[in-house]
Amino acid sequence: MDLKGKKVGIALTGSFCTYEKIFAELERLVEAGAEVFTIFSDASQRISSRFGKPEEFLAKAEEITGRKPILTIEQAEPIGPTGYLDALVIFPCTGNTCAKLANGITDTPVLMAAKAHLRNGKPLVISISTNDALGMNMKNIGLLLNAKHVFFVPFGQDAPVKKPNSLIAHTGRLIPTLEAALDGEQYQPILESF
Ligand SMILES: Cc1cc2nc3c(=O)[nH]c(=O)nc-3n(C[C@H](O)[C@H](O)[C@H](O)COP(=O)(O)O)c2cc1C
Asked: Which residues, judged by CB distance below 6 Å to any ligand atom, belong to the binding site of ligand 1?
């Protein structure tokens, strides 16, 4: 399904090393005609790192989308009753958010958005980025792979020798993954090496 005119939520969590690629995809989404709403987890609003400062990321999100980011659970909650998003992407999704989502925990703006959106039976796309994906988080990824209305951006092992449990999504596949998810389909192949 074409993204033109579609309302897409992009929920950022604290995998800061991916943010450069994430913002490049945000620009592509806007160019494709999507109306983009960003949502930031508490960690992503708070942590400064060698990858940048939160205030810079928030300003960049507003500049690209033309909208102020959603920053609180209260601001994210209306996604449920008003149902205004056609699709929501957790982009990037940390191990922390993956584990909480799979276990029904709703204590950040991103998790509130996901819970609110899923109640409407619309597609939730996950773009995994975590060093423990093939370790402690494998069971949670398995639960989400088997959950209704949940789709994954294709992922692979980014550094199998140095980080044997790490999986990272191919963020450049966001648009085709979203188009397929809007049709209720998982974009394939879901496993893709780097
Ligand atoms: C510089 C830096 C980079 C990080 N990168 C990742 C990452 O790629 N994947 C991940 O799962 N956690 C990463 N973390 C840890 C998360 O930010 C941390 O677990 C946080 O609690 C996530 O909260 P959130 O899921 O609500 O955003 C990183 C932390 C820092 C400080």
From this structure: 13-17, 41-44, 47, 49, 51, 94-97, 108, 129-130
Q: Does any domain span residue 194?
A: no
On whether the pTM is more than 0.85, the answer is: yes
d(CA 87, CA 19): 20
Report the separation in Å between the CA atom of 147 and the middle of ligand 1, taken as the mean of its atom positions.
24
Inside any domain, residue 41: yes
Number of domains in the chain: 1
Beta-bridged to residue 40, according to DSSP, are 12
What range defines the domain where residue 161 resides? 7-182
Distance 18 CA to ligand 1 centre (A): 11
What is the Cα–Cα distance from 176 to 189, expressed in whole angstroms?
11
Only one residue has tokens 């090496």, namely 193
Q: Is the peptide bond before 189 cis (omega within 30 degrees of 0)?
A: yes
Query: Is 27 within a domain?
Result: yes
Residue type (1 letter), 86: D
CA 44 to centroid of ligand 1, rounded, Å: 8
| Atom of ligand 1 minimally distant from the CA of 51 | 1
Q: What is the pLDDT of residues 137-188, one digit of tens each?
A: 999 999 999 999 999 999 999 999 999 999 999 999 999 999 999 999 999 9
85-97 per-residue burial string, b: 16 or more CB within 10 A, e: under 16: bbbbbbbbbbbbb
Question: Which CATH number covers residue 167?
Answer: 3.40.50.1950
